[in-house]
Write a structure and sequence with these properties.
Low-confidence stretches: 1-26, 179-202
Distance between the termini: 41 Å
Structural class: alpha+beta
Oligomer: single chain
Number of helices: 3
Number of domains: 1
Radius of gyration: 16 Å
Largest sheet: 7 strands, antiparallel
Strand content: 35-45%
Mean pLDDT: 82
Length: 202
């Protein structure tokens, strides 16, 4: 059982608000940012993924939010989320040096990212270039305990019209999370995802 401090609770509410306001930019791209506060680490991600240049790599699921900096892995889930996996992503194999840590709170669109093997897992039925978003909260943790290294880690794939990127930012203490964009692309993406899932059930 965890007792949330007032600062951590406010940070979680702020991350949720940023995620609600954040969305995919006009071009496909996704950014996930980690920030450190007094007694917690928060993660907030938003954007979209262009799957046109990625290779399908089977299916699976994610059920808990987590980070493993030594493998360049992060996952977001609010309950069990079926995923389709894609490979073909190039970039640094890690963004830190520690092992697996589960989040105390995770919400948003379920997905996983695994830099060490150049793979991303997206919700089954995901429509390319539509909005994704998610949040992680680690109570009683710091960048040091999670093994996160301050910096910007860029992963890319495709070329021309199908070029895309997934960026992990570990923000220096005191830095602000980049201003989110419009809410409409995320809402549209979630609606399309819901419709696709409904059609698959009928």
């Amino acid at each position: 059982m965890f007792r949330k401090t007032r600062a951590a609770s406010l940070a979680l509410a702020a991350a949720a608000l940023l995620g609600a306001l954040g969305a995919a930019p006009a071009e496909a791209a996704f950014t996930f940012s980690f920030s450190q506060g007094a007694g917690y680490v928060a993660g907030n991600g938003s954007g979209s993924i262009d799957t046109a240049s990625l290779a399908p790599a089977g299916s699976g699921e994610v059920s808990r939010g987590a980070v493993n900096a030594s493998l360049g892995m992060l996952g977001v889930a609010e309950g069990l989320v079926p995923l389709d996996f894609y490979t073909g992503i190039a970039g640094p194999p890690q963004f830190g040096h520690a092992g697996l840590h589960f989040a105390d709170r995770s919400d948003g669109t379920g997905f996983t990212f695994q830099a060490a093997v150049g793979m991303i897992g997206l919700p089954q039925g995901y429509v390319s270039r539509t909005g994704l978003g998610g949040h992680l909260m680690f109570l009683g943790e710091s960048f040091a305990s999670l093994g996160l290294v301050v910096g910007t880690f860029v992963y890319s794939w495709g070329s021309g019209d199908t070029a895309d990127s997934f960026t992990v930012q570990v923000l220096a203490p005191g830095a602000s999370i980049p201003e989110p964009g419009s809410l409409l692309p995320v809402l549209g993406g979630l609606l399309l995802l819901a419709l696709a899932r409904r059609q698959s059930w009928t």
